[in-house]
Every structure is written in structure tokens, then in C-alpha cells.
Protein 1
Amino acid sequence: MTLPTPDSAQPPLTLLPAASEPPKSRRRSGIVFLQRLLLSDYFVLYLTLILFTSAALIFPRIGLASTLGLPNNIANQFLNMWPLLAVAVGQSFVLIIGGIDLSQGSVMAITSVIGAVVMSTVLEPAMFDKSPLWGTVITADGGLLHGSAWAVPIGVLAMLLLGAGIGFLNGFAITKFRIAPFMVTLVTLTFFSAFALWLTQSRNISGLPEGFLRLGTGDIISVYLGPKLEPDIARRDILPAIAYPTVIALGLALFAQFLLTRTVMGKQMFAIGTNRRAAQISGVPNDRVIIMVYMFSGFCASVSSILYSARLGIGQPSLGNNLLLDIIGAAVIGGTSLFGGKGSIKGTLFGVAFFVLLLNILNAARLSPFIIDAVKGGVILVAAFLDVARVRLVNREQSA
Amino acid sequence: MTTLLEVQQITKAFFGVAAVKEVSITLEAGQILGLIGQNGAGKSTLMNLIGGVVQPDSGTMLFKGASYTPRNPAGAYHAGIAFIHQELNLFTNLSIAENLFIEDFPTRSFGPLRLVDRAAVQQRTKEMLAKVGLNLSPNLTIDRISPGERQLVEIAKALHLDAPLIIFDEPTTSLTARETERLFTLMNQLREQGRAMIYISHILNDVLALANSIAVMRDGQLVTQEPRQNFDVKRMISLMVGRSIDNLYPPRTAAPQSQTLLEVDGVSAKGIVENIHLTVKRGEVVGLFGLMGSGRTELARMLFGMDSIESGSLTINGQRVTRFTPRESIRQHVAFVTENRREEGLLMNISIADNVALVALPEFARTAFQVVDQSQMRDSARHASSILQLKSGDIVQQPARSLSGGNQQKVVIAKWLLANPAIFIMDEPTRGIDVGAKYEIYSIIDQLAANGSGILFISSELEELIGMCDRILVMSRGEIFGEFDRDQFNAETILRAAFREEGDSL
């Protein structure tokens, strides 16, 4: 009996789609270009630029057509970006390990309140005498450390520690009690939002010291674009080029980028987000990394809270209430995958820029808030869809 | 006698690699066709084609004389082909009855509503279970019954269809000897009723005992299909292998040394493993053989600190282990090549370099911030990859998922090499990879042993353990049930131990 040997002459197989396809047509190369674009790290940046240019043509107030409005508006754009960037960086970390942090908004609220409780220099008794803190921690003279030179550093430190502390609670419950991140952070969201409202009886705390306000608005390098002749320049004509929020948020983003791409923890985060079991078997300290990531997320939320509170000049118990969709939206638009294991700080930066610009355009178009929210939702849906499409594309490329 | 199924010149390729190449087989009504071949020979793909799981690239199938082109498993099911898969397809959270009737619950009318007729479900489930000799309550959930019982439930489900053709893909791997016997009796009854069956198994004597005709596959092609009378075990093996068995395994280059690396003393966990004693010496390859469900994987997971041990102790390199966690095991220089690359071994979307560096990552950390020394990390990863002759592009760019099964397994091994382990626990290290890659993995195992590592080699392929090991331990129902030195190796005796047939040779 003769057996067919594996290497006996066989007609060539024509099973690969690539092999049987006609040479690349123009259409095909167009598709390849689109695929490249979609997979590019800078996809969202291109999108932002396209959006900006087209909007500038339609709504002159935003862009090129109006020379007066342009620098002012752009400066404003950036000021809107920084607090969102800070908090979205933390969310990106959590998404990369395959988790989710719904509690960031409440961290912003409670840290904003606690910071103000420490730092405020004057409080209206009629507004706060119902607060559980009245008479002990806060008085008509202001907060706990009112007037002290240490008020601002200690207030800021308290905010940061509280943010990281709530993150620790999240991470601890998720790793040690094995409760789903969604559930844990939903509970902390509800609890600390309510706690912030209870402490202040829903009032905003004003009277924050000058030294703190500077963190949200102060310029480091300013630009003046008007004529040189006038001796006094009106404040509103001076544009912040590099402001404290710029330095703080970009510094945080750079630090996060460094953690993510250069350190052991960053690599372990991607491992956990890609395959938690494989990571554990490979000796990755899963629990420790997960707790650290949630702490970082809380920390980022409190940095964002500092920037917002200082800009608004108040400790606001409702701060961050409606921010969740913006935060997750910006991260997802920036290419961070909700399935874990994928994401970058660069992407989140572009995502935030895109998102803020989009909101700016929608506002400029004087659409109703409902329409704006609907458009926001639609854009995030498209971004989430692109996330899925990218994964498919990558898989197809690799199997071909 | 009428021809029930005729497969003609069927071909199926995945990513350009032919898994089944121009295969033709025929099956008569009322007959059993035995299908044999090594892992990766194309048996499962052929059955998936018949079962509608995948569609052929070319070739035709005739079923009951008519053209048969199933678009999906449901199509095959409705045409009258029942497929009992190697991996069980039961819902573990549902009851036996619910699993059996998931596709068509008997219903009764209640006004405009269709209600599930519970009484009928109970009654019919009991009848169906009785047919396969199971005496269980229909309301038990699947996760409460043994793997063997699950297999029989799966078979009961297939019988429920009254299918003229039933495909059995390795049905006995998780059955006890008694359950196996019951299954064979049942199959003979079904044959007498005129049903046809395709029976895939690695246990060649079973195939010989059951089948009317036997088809042998190798490298995606049909070697031959002939009546049973033409075969004996020896001929079956030589047809499956296509060359002498001697060349399947590299020669072992060094003998075990005297120093004991791993000592397991009376490890137990209730209902999983019982009173396990074993040792692995420096340079020794110890095989751990057992059928599915024998507790071998569970034991490996316990030794590595992934599951907890209730009693007993573990001594690694003379030091008694006090904390059982994967991290502690890694610190003690133990490596664990897991059974399942996709789920527990690799980070599929991450680059090969990062995969290889994962275990040893802390060793590349610099400064208080634990900055990874990228160039050193990549150099080490490249070095480990080249030692194992990994075939890949740029390991920094290429993700692990793009590699073939054999090369993926090398990445898993490379990742442990960087951590410099003394003991390797390898659970099914050659599962799902082709013959050539297997040979390379065997060579790596030999090299590791020659360099002084101790290896616990867990496998359900007895042949490879016989080819590679210094000693083979047999596990059965959570216990070590036999120990064989190299000069005592005999496939039949070892299999008997695995089946707990004590009478003959133990």
C-alpha cells in the first residue's frame, strides 16, 4: 500500500483571500489608507484639527475668521481642558487594567468641600449654621486653618490624601472582597456625593484664600497681543499662555505617561488588563497594582478638584456631578479600550482636546443643553464603536 | 447495506494551512467508523465540517443520498447529525433537565401562554437518563455532577434527537472504566437499532473493539479507510505516525542527579487530591499521567500556590514552603507552564518581548521608581527567544497572538527561563501544537533537565511521557496510583493503572 506523504506534490492552494485577489486597485489602496488612519495613534489629533478648521469656517467666533476672538477663545479652550485632563488621566489608568472608576465625580465633590473647610477665610453664618461642622470645624471666621500661612499647603495636601484614600477604599474592596469595580465605585460615588452635600447642606463654600485661587487661574507666562502704545493693559486682554493649571495637569499627565510606559508598574498594568490570570501566574502582584491604580485615580480626581475649585473660587459639593460621561468619553475617544489592556496618556490628551473643542462648538452654536448632551452621547457611542472596529481590524491584519 | 454519509475530496484550510486535505470517507447505516490520528491530524476539523461548525473550502458531502451542506451546527442537528464534543457543551448552572430540553421544552397551553410542561420534562428526562444508565435527579445542576456523568448527559442529549448519525469525539477521556463499559454497551445497542456512529479515540483497543471500519488520518490527509479486520494496534500506530516512533523524541542527553529539588509530602485537598507523595530530582523529568479529571492539573495548581492545600507539606530545594502563592513559588524558582496558553499563559495582544519579560520584570527595575531598563529587558528577551529558536519577526513589535501554537508555547517557556527556575511544572506543554514543534519542545525539556532543572511533566498523551520521562507517576481519582521507572515503561500497564484496573499488573 502506498501512503500519501505530506510533502507529495499538491496543487497549490488558493485559499488565502489575499492570494486570489486582483492587484491593488485604487479603491483598495484607499481602504488601506483609511485603515492606517484609524489605527494611528494620532487619529484623534487629526480629527480634532479637522473639527477645529471646519468649525472655524462655520462659526467665526471660534476661530480664524475673527482675529479678536481667536486667541482669547483658544486660551479659554485650554483652561477648560486641564482639569478634565487631570481626572481623565486617572480614569485611563483604571480602564487600562480593565476596571472602571465611577466614583471620581464624588471624589472631586468631597475633596472640594474638605479643602474649603480647611482653607476658607470667611463663612456666612446664616448659610452654614445647619452644617454638622458648624461651631467646631467651621465658624464665622472661616475654616479650620483660616488665616494661617499653612492653610493652603495643608488644605491641598488634605485634598490629595483624601482623594487617594477613597481610591484606596475602592481598590481594597475590589481586590480583597472581590466585589465588581462597577459596584464598589458606584457605592463610593453615592456615598461621598451625599456626604459632601450633607456636610455643607448643599451650600457652596466661598472665601478661599488667594494663594489657592492662583492654582486654578494664575499665569506663569502671559501673552499680550494688543498694540504696544497704551500704558495700562486691561486684565482681560492679557492671555495666559502657561498657567498653573497647564503646568499641574500636563505635569500629572507626563508623570502618568512615565509610569505607564517606563516602569514595572506600567507593564504590569497592561498585563493585568490583558489577562488577569496569566499576570497572576507570572508573579504580578495583581492586588497591589490594582489598589495603586485606584489610588492614582482618586489622586487625579482630587488634582482635578483643586483646579476646578480654585478656578471657581468655591468649595462645591456638587462638583463633578455630571462629569462622568465626559471623563470616560474623553478616555475612550483617545483610544483607551473599555475591555482593558489598551490605552495611552497621549491618546487621552487628544481625546480631552477633542471633547472640549466639541463642547465649545456646540455651545457656540447656541444649541440647547439637551441637544448638546445628546450629541455628546452620540460621539462617545461612535468612539466606543471605533474601539471595537479597531480591535477587529488588528485581528484581521494579523491573521492575514 | 446503504451508504449513509459520503464525504468526497473535502478540504479546509485555516490561514492558508490545510487542516483537512482532500479527504474522502464513507459510512454505512448501522455501522461504527473508528477515526484515529495524532493530535493535529485533522480529525476534529473533519468532524467540525460534518457537524456544520466550519464550512469546507472545497469538496462535497452526501447525507442519506442527498447533498449535505450544513451552514452551522443547528443545520447539522436538524439534518440528523448529533455531535458529542470533546469539550462539553453543557450549561453548568442549569439542571440536567434544562440542559436536555434547552432547544425545545415540551410545553402546554395556558390561555394565550405557552408554559413549560414540568411534569413532562421530569418524566422524559428520567427516561433519557435511564437509557444511558444514569440514576440522577433531573433537577441536579450540572456543576454538581462528575465529569463522567456530564459526558453521559451529553450523550443522552444526543440520543434524544433520534439522529441517524452520532459523532463521538473522545467521549471516554473523562469516564471511569465502568462508565466507559456502559457507554460501549449503549453504542452496540444503537448500532443494532440501525444508527451509524463515528467514534474518535486515542485508545486504540477501544476503537478496535467497537468499529466496523477504521479511518486513519495524518497531517490533514486520509491515510486509509479499511475494514476493522485489517488492523491491529501496531499497524494503527505506524499508520498514524508515518514513521518509526523512535524519531518522535530526542534522545535524553543527561541522567538525573541525586539531589532532590521538589518533595511533596502527603498533600491533600478534600475531594480533589488525596495524600500525594512525589519527588523530583535535579536533572530528572518526572511524568505525571492521568485521565481528564484525575486531579493532575489541580495538583499542579496547588503546588504552584494557585489553589489552597488542606494538609501536607512541600519542600523546595531543602526548604519547606510556608506561604503558598504564585509569587512565593517564583521566588523559590518554580516555573509553571500552564495547560491553557490562551487563558493563563500569554498576554495575547502584548508584544512578545513584554510577554517574555513579564515574570522577571522586577529584575530589570532601576531606581526607586522601578523604571524598566528597556534595552536590557529586550536583550534578555531576545536571548531567551534565540535559545528556544523562536520563529518570529521583531519581538518588540509583534504581539504574541500572531505566533503559531508551537511558538506561543516557546514564549511561555522563555518567560520562565528569564526567572532562572530550578523546577518546571509543565501542564500539557505540547497540547495543540504540531509534530515538528512538539519535537522542539521535547528538546527544550531535555536541555532544561541536562542543565540541572527538575521537570514535572504532566500530560494526557502517554506516548510522549514514555518518550521523554525518567519516571512516570500515574494519577487516578486524586491519588497517585502507580509509579514506573523507565525500564518498566509499558503503555498498556500504565493505562491500566490510570483506569484503576488493579488485577493484572500492579
Note: The beta strands of chain A are 219-224, 238-243.
Protein 2
Amino acid sequence: MSPTTTVIGAVFNLNHPAHVVHWHFFQMSVSNVVVIGLMFLVFALAIALPFPGATRRRGGGS
Amino acid sequence: MSTTPTPTPTPHGSWTGRVREAAVSALPPEKLLPDGQPTYVASWIYVFGVASIASLVVIIASGSILSLKGPAWWHYTGVGQFFNSVHLWAVELFFFAMVVHLWGKYWMAAWRGGRTRVWVTGAITFLVAVPTALTGYVSQQNFDAQWIATQAKDGLNSVGVGAFFNVTNFGQMYSYHVLLLPLAVVGLVTAHVLLVRRHGVVPPFALESRPTGGPPEPAGEQPPPVGAVS
Amino acid sequence: MSRLSQALRGRDDTGPWTGAYAPYDLIKELCIAVGVIALLAVLLAVLFSSPDDKPSTIAQWSRQMPINFVTAAAKELDGTSPTAEYGPPYNHNGEGQHAAFLYPQKWLGVSHPINTANDFVIDPLQTVPNDPALQSAIAQYQAAPEKTQKAWGEAYAKPLEEYETALEEKKTPTNAVALSSTTGSVSVQASGAGPVPTLMGGLLSLAKSGGLDGSLLTSKQFFQTDYTKPLLFMSDGGLLAERAEGQHLLGEQWGMMNETGSYPGQVWLWLYTLWYQVEPFKSSENADILVMLVMGALSLAFICVPLIPGVRDLPRLIPIHRLIWREHYRAGGPPPAA
């Protein structure tokens, strides 16, 4: 008997044992690696991408 | 003709009056809800604080639906499963936003100019969010909850916390998760945001050849926004 | 400014902002953020849903792994199971973990008393009706002196432990332990075990029927929300760990960070679980308290970053802030206010 409940409505079924990334003594599931990678990427993009309203900040406020 | 009602004079020793005066003095309305920000607030990194708050709003909203229907509901209905999913993904987004916000604030050294308490309340919020999540995981009433509870108990027992915080006691954990710890998180976030409003968003580092505006002051308080266009 | 205050604040020449402001709608920003995050959470929920692996029960454990169940039950009876020897907060049969002179587990005492022999074996068996042989075995066991009870328990447990060790070492186990394919009962060749085989047989039947799950839960009162007893009993066996290993949830698999299935887990626990993978924590009997103390110290340091020289100076030395505030710096510093 399968121990998992049928997942209702999911487009992608993640209910299978995780793929694991092994690096030296680190072991991490692929999904966790993706989350951490996204954190770094989003941080880098947040700093690098220009923020709208530059004209307003240059000319406005006076 | 003035339509502003004349306030009655505060009686001497009135607690209410003193609280009001202290609150208004610390956070006058234009400081509490300013409609302008310093011109250096010009980066996407600044949205991750409000993104963390937004995630918390979604967590509480979805969590409220789950608690309205009781802890077993989400296991046997599609709608319940959906709200559980929203709640879980909102938690992932909450920690995601908090971490990016934390990284940004660290590299900006956002504790400068008397803003130590802003950093402290933020750090404590993150640390309190961790057991808030833990109590949620052990309240799931599924295999994951069984495993996490039987594992986490060893860490907590080793430092004596297990004597009064029993992760295998579903009733206790559910109470902590639905009421006590969310209250703590919301309280800490409120203090954190009010402190940010009081001290203002931290100014940039002065570059060696360019002076900052004004002499250094311990309090680091900033004047109300000037020249903001409404 | 006092010297202490100066030392605590370090080199902080940040003054109040006297430059210009620009319009910035905080409430609108909050509303947009809530909308975006809500949409994102709903999208992720629709795309991936969430995991919900059904919980294990003692009934399932006893049916799927009867020999493992009887081995664990025998150890609960003779007081050699992990729970029986745990110490506080469950009993006084161990001191628990310590770090140098710190014994917080012992100091906080027994707040949730569990006597494994009575709570997990004898009391549930006493609820079984219409079984005079079983009730007579219970009476015989309870009337015997402690030394005799211990001898019976050890005689019965020894072949079971040898069986488990043989399985772990992937060797062929002896015939001393056998599982009947017709009755599903476990027979253990052990002389000098007294009434223990009857007790274990009775407990196995009770467990398979689901009665042990219920008995452990409602033993004190009708309404219950405390699953400590059935969970501790199950964790002394192998079913939970076997399921966990398949889902990469074991400690040595960095399982603390993981979720069942392929879902993202608790990535924020990365540093907490990392310590368990390295010495001296990895092989220490006091690993939990040592890791908790290290993480406690680091958490305190995290809170106190503004007060720690070096750590608080790094942002000035590694100028990521030049990217963040590049517009401000390009404009030559603070523009004049109105």
C-alpha cells in the first residue's frame, strides 16, 4: 500500500524520493539546492537591476 | 474658521495622556506614514523587507483558513490540501525574502546611526520564525510530523527545554503554532517596522572624499521628509 | 559619548540624512507586495501542491516488521530500550546529555514520566479481555522479584538482538528466531524466559489489531492530544527510520533540512545540521547539547552583529554597498534638500 496520499491538483508531482546532490561531505536535495541557488541569484539581481523612478529622484523633492 | 477641535488639556498624571504624548513624540504621523523616502532608497534590495511582511500576511491568511476547519481537514479534501500548499509555499517565500533582506541589510551595515535595535529585532524575528515553523511541521499529523517530532525531541531534551516544550505533544505544539508563536512574530515585526520608521532607512556609507550631510549624532534620528510630493 | 558606547558602536560616522526626499508610496508598495506574494504562493500551490505522507501506526509496524516489533517490545519490558534508558524528561534511568559541568537535561527533571515496562507492555496487556493464559502470565511476571524479571527479559531478548545484528551485518541469522507464515506469530527459542514469550505474543496480537495504538493514547483519559507514548515506542523500533532513510531524512543524510518527496525543506537549518556531520559532534554521545550550545552562541552573535568588531566592519571593507547605492554615489553624495 502506498504511504502517500494522491496529490490533488498538482501540475508537477513532487511525491517521489528526492534526487540528492553529493559534493565532498555535503549532501543536499536538488530542491534545496535550487532554493539556495535562487536566493543568491535573486540577491544579485536585486542589487544589479536598476530601480525605477531615477528621474523623479533626481529632479523631484525640490 | 478652524474646524480642528481644541483638545482638552491632559490632566496631570494621566497615563493615557502620557502614553499618547510619548507615542506621538516618538512617531508623529508624518514619520509613521511618510509619503516620501530619501533619494538613496533606489534599489530592488529594499523590497525584500516588505516582501517578508507580505509573505507573513499570506501565511496568516492561509493559516487562518486551516485553523477555521481544524487540523485534520486538509488531509481529506482538495480545498484543504490547496490551502495547506499555499501555507507551506508562503512559508518558503517568507524565509526566502527574510534571508535576502538580511543579506542586503548586512552589506548595508544597516545598524549604523543608532539603528542597533532595528538589527536586533530583525535577527530575533528570524530566530523566532524557526521554532514557529518547527511547531507547524510537527502539527501536520502525518509521517513528516512523526519523524521531525521524534528527532527534534533529542535536541530540545538535551538542553532541558524538552521538559516543558514537548514536540510529541500535538495539542501543545498546535497551540504554540496557531497562537503563541505567531503573536510573537507579529509583535517582533511590528517593533522592527516602528523602529525603522523612527530612525529612517539607513543612509549610505560616506565615501572618503565626500562628506555626509550634517555632523554625526548618536541618536541618528532624521527629520520628517521634506519636499515630498503628495 | 562614553568610552563604552564608543567601543560598542565602533567607527560609526553615520549622521542623520539632510538631503532630498522623493515620493515613495509605502502603503501602495505593501498592497502590491501582498498581491504578488499571494499570487506566487497560489501559483506554487497549483504547480507543486504539498507533501502529505500518511503517518505510520503501531499496527502497521507490527504487521510489516513483526520481529522488529517484538525485539523493541522485549527491550521496553526489560528496560534496555532507548526510551527506557533515556533519562529525563521521561525517567531517571540515565543522566541524559551534558557539556562539561552543564547537565540541563538532568536539572530540568522528569516532567513526562514513562515506565516503559508498565506503560508500553503490562498496562496495555491488562486491557485484553478473555485471555486467561495471558492474564496468568502477567500475574506471574508481576509477582516475580526484579532480578528474576530481568533474567527472563534478557534470556528472551538475547536471540532477538543476535538476529537483528546478523541482519545489520548482512549475515544469515540463526533459527532461534522464526516468523510463522501461517499464524504471523514470532517464536523465539529462549530457555529461562518465563512468561515473557506469552506477554510478547499477546502484545504482538494487540498491536496488529490496532488496540495498542489506542491503548497508548487514551491510557490517562478519554480526550487526548499527547502522542508521546506511541511515538516513543515506534521510534524505538525500525519502521520510522526505514521510511525516513528512503526519504533522505536521516541525520547523516542531512535530513534535518529535507522534506518528504522532492519538495524543498527547511534550508534555514543548514548550519544546524552541518555540525552533526563533522567531528567532534559526529561521534559524540553528547552531540545534541554540543550542537545546541554552538548554535546558541552563534545565534547570540547573529543578534549582536552591530557590537562585534570585525564582523560589523566587513560591509565597509567589502563594498557591495557601492552597487546598492550607485545612483546616490554617482550623483556626488546627498543632493541639497529644498
Note: The first strand of chain B starts at residue 36 and ends at 38.
